[in-house]
Records
---
Amino acid sequence: MDTTLAYLRESLSNHLNHSIGEEIYKKLQANTNQNEMEFVRTLSEEETAFLNSVLEKEIRYAQDEQDQIRVTQLNEVYELLI
């Protein structure tokens, strides 16, 4: 699995209480050979909106924790969603 998508999957594990979050998580598990661009292309509009919201929060949290590697990895996906 792409390193960026591994960080995304870990972040999404905190949001499995939402059905959309669970759907996205399952897509990540099923498509382990994708890169982040290929993955983003598989998302519906609803999934993209949900992931956009989640990533904003997760990136802020990583910044607060001064985890620059996580910020960079999650930001790569976030930029593709915009």
Note: The chain has a mean pLDDT of 91.
---
Amino acid sequence: MIYLQLFLSFLQIGAFSFGGGYAAMPLIQSQVVDLHGWLTMKEFTDLVTIAEMTPGPIAVNSATFVGTQIAGPLGAVIATLGCILPSCIFVTALAYIYMKYRKMSMLQGILGSLRPAVVAMIAKAGLTILISAVFLSGAVKFAAGNVSVRAVIWFVIAVVLLRKKKMNPILVMVLCGVFETICVLVMKWI
């Protein structure tokens, strides 16, 4: 039964996550955290970090990770197949339709109208991750002890390095991870 649930959950994610992995994050959170309770919000945040750092699409990496956590290697295969199956079908059908009707203005209008929705989904995913990383309770509450000061510092440093210094995002992620590890180890020794 768990295999069918994994397949159907990631089939829905794969079918409705237009705009790539970041746009899929709210859908993945809805299925994995809210609906089925397979992961906590903290585990989901870790999932996003791992999916970002590993090669490949974020949604596929997430499916593989969740499938492994819930039902082992077979669960990983089933969740991943559920995630990629809609894309395979959609891309094949869309390629045929696009090649046949690419000159139509209506098709160009449809594609143009999807862009704002994709931007909104990406923004929602980013805000969800930011809130769960900065606020320890997972909700925006400016109470004593609820704000992770180190997370805010790493966020500001990362934004400065990415925007002002134009550093490679992978290098910025590695640097933040290394310095956070050093901070945690120093805090243990103190």
Note: The radius of gyration is 19 Å.
---
Amino acid sequence: MSGQLLQVTWLPGDDRLRGRCHCGAQAEAGEPVAMWEWLLAHPDHPAGGPATPDEAATLPRPPAHLR
């Protein structure tokens, strides 16, 4: 995978990560390990993001004024 860019960024004002694969696929996750596993699984990563939902994704998000 030499010379191909993988990118993980923190979403502003949130605990979530956004990953971008060199193929253009993007996903969000709450756990860095899940995000990197998803990215490194190219070309077999699922289009929607990491296959296993993390706890942060299953909990309701608090209103914006409480974050």
Note: Residues 7-59 form one domain.
